[in-house]
Amino acid sequence: MTASQTDDRVVQLVKSWHAQFLQLQSLTKAHIVMCINDEDINIPPLLSLHTLSSEQAEYCLKYLPIVINKKSLTCDNNLLLDESIKFTHFEILDKPKNAINHDFAILATNDNSESNLALFNLLVNQFKTDLSKTLTNKNHKSSNITISDLMNSFEEIFWIKDTQGRYIYANQSAEKAWHKSNHEVIGKTDHQLYDHEVADLFIDGDSQAIQAGRSVIVAECEDFDLSSNKAWLETLKSPIYHKGELAGVLGFTRDIAKHKAAEEQLMLAACVFENAVEGVLVTDKYGVIRDVNQAFTQITGYELSEVLGKKPSVLSSGRHSKAFFSKMWNTLLVNGKWHGEIWNRRKNGTVFPQTITLSAVYDEDNCVKFFVGVFADISLLKQTEEKLKNLAYVDPLTGLPNRMRFVSYLEQEISHAFRGKKQLAILCIDIDLFKHINESLGHLAGDEIIVELSKRLSYALSEFDVLARLGSDEFVVLLPSITGTESVFSSISHLRRVFERPFIIDNTQPIRLTASIGISLYPNDGLDADALLRNVDAAMHKAKAQGRNGYAFYTEGMTAEAAEQLKLQSALHQAIINNDFYLVYQPKIHLASGQINGFEALIRWYDPKLGQISPADFIPLAEKIGLINDIGLWVLQAACTQGVNWLTQGLQFSRISVNVASLQLQKSDFVDKVRDILLTTGLPAKHLDIEVTESCMMTNQVAVIKDLKQLSAMGISISIDDFGTGYSSLTYLKKLPLDTLKIDQSFVKNIPFDSNNSAIAKAVIALGHALNLQVIAEGVETQQQADFLLQNNCDLAQGYLYSKPKLAEEVNEFLLPIRPT
């Protein structure tokens, strides 16, 4: 047969039933074209498919459409490819445009498994056998459709060579890709069409297919399509045999760019999967583990082989209820995602906390196909949180409960007493003239006395009583379920005996002490913890006023101090009217460079009659009587005005810090007030720092967080003041838009000599830096403190070591002129 005759060759269909098969392979599909004749059909087994499993064949043939004489044939369990496989569903597919009297069926599958490829090899061999017959039978009866029609109906490139390597056919896609017409190609060899190197490459591919005796992939290369788009081409070749003799070579080229891109995405995903620091596990829709990454193994101790096919419950710690998991799964199935904390168990039996995000993966029908869990071990974070929590609730010097822990105990006992209609007693113990001991013997000697006194007081109380340290020389005792004043007198007697023996300092110097004790009773002297503590403090001061070394019960007749409070309250109202307040500024020092970083604005009050009044006296009163908001806005206005004055004078500074009370943050218009002050004064927001205390999170956390985020969005810096002394939950801390943590001066005191304070300072610095926050220590008074803070990477410091708070005109010496740009 000559090359020019090839286009006229047709596929003859035998009288009863015959089909020719042509293998086509693309990215995810393989197509088989079957020509079906118009005559009566007697359906025998089509082909023995022992190489294809029943499950695979069912999937493939589910989409096999059959058209006969333009009428559909629906087969239900009666079309057999072999005796063991049945196929239950067939659908009609439109025939190709070039089909004249014959109809076609196309089988499509996404299964590129080895067994499925084996099926297609059988099919293509059947086609090649019949094609060889057609090519060699010149007198064969013609059909109305040609080989050219068949091959030109596909976008892939097809060509056929004879045994001499001459092209005897190329479809239209080949003509377009090669930029050569059939006339230029047919009858020629590769050496006649291409340069020597390329021709040898093509001929070598023919040889590979012939030597293999089957379809093989002979080339894969990067190229560009007709639209200059980047493409990856894959070429397959297969020998054609007739009666056992080689008749030629069939070639086929397809674009696998999408396949390559998918491979790259899979490689990238696999790389991320294996190298992620978070543990990842993948389950099927039934929750059975299908894969885990290396981090999963490192965190849990389980290898993939140990959990494959099992459910995540293999990690269960037993700490969570069924209701917990039921709610988790409900959220996951409804929303497609769940995030939270779970305690799980490692292979070695240890229980650990983790944060985990569970996500559902859906298929094209929007049905769940997989679940993916990404988790991180937060053991260290929990340990740090617990450590800070303990430090926040425990007095670091004595190990006794501090004020916050004591208030918690007191509130619980008040609740019990209310239900049981019982009485409670609160005792406040304050060492008389303890200040003189600190001044004469030093703070270390004073601390030694405090530690010894805490031990003695603990021994003097029963196991049901609660002892706490509220301040430097002030202790408080809770006596639950008292039976009357007699039991209170008994406890007081035991406590006073503690002071009968002298305290020995440095194992040599005996010190004798006395104490004043105040007593308040529930429910007579207050119905809540705040009232009881306030009144017991008043009673203690009454005992001191009566000559010390005694005790006093709170009574409503304690009017002297109340009268002083009333006088101060009246003066405070007048001070707001007369504008008697003024600001002083304490510099913040950058520890590494020693440069000024900014200032904290501090309010002061001088009354013409009462003299200089400490903020410690009038700020709590202002909060109590509802004046703190007015005073706070005055401070903010005055500080911003002074900042603008410095900038106008050409003096540079980073920020002015202003303290904001929690009651101010609870005002719904607070953010608007701050914005108005910045607009009216003209101070850029970047020069303002707002300091809030941890107690601001005690009420209405959602609103507070929202307001702080709005302030931060304006460019204002946000700092937490006195960190560690208030509501120090890391859960809320991480939600705040913070820039700075301030270590309270009570923790800076006596470092580096006080191991507990040193540990707290280190922990706060580490926590701040872990959260990408600046850390500033306040109350720095000695060079040893500054050196310790610098060595532990604290960023900033303020305190008397550098400067006392000064008037605005006195701090100009700290400010440098702005350099012209």
Automatic annotation (TrEMBL):
<dbReference type="InterPro" id="IPR001633">
    <property type="entry name" value="EAL_dom"/>
</dbReference>
<dbReference type="InterPro" id="IPR035919">
    <property type="entry name" value="EAL_sf"/>
</dbReference>
<dbReference type="GO" id="GO:0071111">
    <property type="term" value="F:cyclic-guanylate-specific phosphodiesterase activity"/>
</dbReference>
<dbReference type="Pfam" id="PF08448">
    <property type="entry name" value="PAS_4"/>
</dbReference>
<dbReference type="InterPro" id="IPR035965">
    <property type="entry name" value="PAS-like_dom_sf"/>
</dbReference>
<dbReference type="InterPro" id="IPR043128">
    <property type="entry name" value="Rev_trsase/Diguanyl_cyclase"/>
</dbReference>
<feature type="domain" description="PAS">
    <location>
        <begin position="143"/>
        <end position="213"/>
    </location>
</feature>
<dbReference type="InterPro" id="IPR029787">
    <property type="entry name" value="Nucleotide_cyclase"/>
</dbReference>
<dbReference type="InterPro" id="IPR001610">
    <property type="entry name" value="PAC"/>
</dbReference>
<dbReference type="InterPro" id="IPR052155">
    <property type="entry name" value="Biofilm_reg_signaling"/>
</dbReference>
<feature type="domain" description="PAC">
    <location>
        <begin position="338"/>
        <end position="390"/>
    </location>
</feature>
<dbReference type="Pfam" id="PF00563">
    <property type="entry name" value="EAL"/>
</dbReference>
<protein>
    <recommendedName>
        <fullName>cyclic-guanylate-specific phosphodiesterase</fullName>
        <ecNumber>3.1.4.52</ecNumber>
    </recommendedName>
</protein>
<dbReference type="InterPro" id="IPR000700">
    <property type="entry name" value="PAS-assoc_C"/>
</dbReference>
<keyword id="KW-0973">c-di-GMP</keyword>
<dbReference type="Pfam" id="PF00990">
    <property type="entry name" value="GGDEF"/>
</dbReference>
<dbReference type="Pfam" id="PF13426">
    <property type="entry name" value="PAS_9"/>
</dbReference>
<dbReference type="InterPro" id="IPR013656">
    <property type="entry name" value="PAS_4"/>
</dbReference>
<feature type="domain" description="GGDEF">
    <location>
        <begin position="422"/>
        <end position="556"/>
    </location>
</feature>
<dbReference type="InterPro" id="IPR000160">
    <property type="entry name" value="GGDEF_dom"/>
</dbReference>
<dbReference type="InterPro" id="IPR000014">
    <property type="entry name" value="PAS"/>
</dbReference>
<feature type="domain" description="EAL">
    <location>
        <begin position="565"/>
        <end position="819"/>
    </location>
</feature>
<feature type="domain" description="PAS">
    <location>
        <begin position="272"/>
        <end position="310"/>
    </location>
</feature>
